[in-house]
């Protein structure tokens, strides 16, 4: 009898140990996939250790809107890694990034401006007086496909507003981007910080397309770099897809407009000048689409 009791206790202990060792991790039910933490509780509104987002209902957001949907972006949306990329067991580079955009206004706001009107550039703190407008027109541009093939396309340019600040610097503004031409003739593209500390996951097998048609950084390089911008779409909430090494990485000068102080959600005026990799696309002029 004693041996039977000891055997039963051993069996229970063995089962308990097995249950404990397999407690944490992914589980699937009729609703979808969920993740149990080491403490035995299911994650909600959190990232899993392997880089997937679990929503407020406790399930993986397969096919949902991307992680930046709650933010407003004008123009192009770019990401820049914190340089903390780690390759997980599923073959994904998981890293934290900040999100930027290249526009300051929507097109409706730009079209409502009047010549001679003084406006404050959003989140920047610079006053600009409107000096003129350029209506959309047909232009020819070269488009590079994923396989590197270049084709000519005729498109309509954006509605453009031109303004000038008190120092004589000229601003060419569309809903896609704002280019600042300084009094010495140099040109800077203005980029705003929109959101910080966003966790992204990118497959190590996805290779970026070269934005200027001549060179492309690898996915590993872009995930680990703290200076390269990443142009991409997001699927399944935070999974990086359709990656491009954008032209902005090859401009000699990019002006980052910082909208938030560290540890604060309050916009502050300020700017950071930074030199990105110089390359063949330095002539990204204010007349481009």
The arrangement of helices and strands along the chain is: HEEEEEEEHEEEEEEEEEHEEEE
Uncertain ranges = 1-22, 257-289
Helix content range of the residues, please?
Answer: 10-25%
**N-to-C terminal Cα separation, in Å?**
87 Å
Basic shape: elongated
The gyration radius over C-alpha positions equals 25 Å
Mean pLDDT: 76
Strand residue content: 35-45%
Write down the domain tally: 2
Supply the number of helical segments: 3
State the secondary-structure class.
Answer: mainly beta
Characterize the biggest β-sheet: 14 strands, mixed
Number of separate strands: 20
Task: Write up what this structure looks like.
The protein is mainly beta and 289 residues long. It folds into two domains: 10-62, no CATH class; 67-289, no CATH class. It has helices spanning 2-21, 107-112, 219-224, and strands at residues 25-28, 33-36, 46-47, 53-54, 77-81, 86-87, 92-101, 118-120, 127-134, 138-144, 150-156, 160-164, 170-173, 178-181, 187-203, 209-210, 229-235, 239-245, 254-257, 271-274. Strands 5, 6, 7, 8, 9, 12, 13, 14, 15, 16, 17, 18, 19 and 20 form a 14-stranded mixed sheet that branches. The protein has a two-stranded antiparallel ribbon with strand order 1-2. The longest helix is centred in the N-terminal third of the chain and has 20 residues, at 2-21. The chain is elongated and about 65 Å long. The termini are far apart. The model is unreliable at 1-22 and 257-289 (pLDDT under 50).
């Amino acid at each position: 009898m004693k041996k039977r009791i000891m055997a039963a206790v051993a069996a229970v202990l063995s089962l308990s140990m097995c249950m404990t060792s397999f407690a944490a991790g992914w589980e699937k039910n009729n609703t979808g996939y969920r993740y149990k933490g080491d403490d035995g509780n299911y994650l909600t509104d959190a990232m899993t250790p392997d880089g997937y987002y679990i929503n407020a209902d406790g399930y993986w957001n397969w096919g949902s809107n991307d992680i930046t949907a709650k933010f407003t972006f004008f123009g192009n949306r770019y990401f820049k890694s914190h340089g903390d990329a780690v390759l997980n067991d599923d073959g994904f580079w998981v890293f934290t990034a900040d999100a930027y955009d290249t526009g300051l206004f929507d097109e409706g706001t730009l079209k409502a401006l009047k010549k001679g009107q003084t406006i404050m550039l959003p989140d920047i703190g610079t006053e600009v007086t409107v000096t003129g407008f350029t209506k959309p027109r047909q232009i020819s541009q070269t488009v590079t496909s994923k396989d590197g093939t270049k084709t000519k396309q005729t498109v309509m340019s954006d509605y453009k507003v031109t303004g000038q600040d008190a120092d004589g610097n000229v601003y060419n503004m569309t809903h896609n981007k704002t280019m600042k031409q300084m009094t010495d003739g140099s040109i800077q593209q203005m980029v705003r910080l929109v959101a910080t500390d966003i966790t992204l996951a990118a497959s190590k097998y996805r290779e970026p397309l070269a934005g200027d048609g001549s060179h492309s950084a690898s996915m590993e390089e872009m995930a680990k770099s703290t200076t390269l911008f990443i142009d991409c779409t997001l699927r399944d909430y935070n999974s990086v897809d359709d990656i491009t090494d954008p032209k902005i990485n090859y401009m000699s000068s990019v002006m980052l407009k910082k909208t938030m102080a560290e540890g604060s959600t309050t916009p502050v005026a300020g700017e950071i000048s930074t030199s990105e990799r110089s390359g063949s696309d330095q002539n990204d002029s204010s007349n481009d689409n």
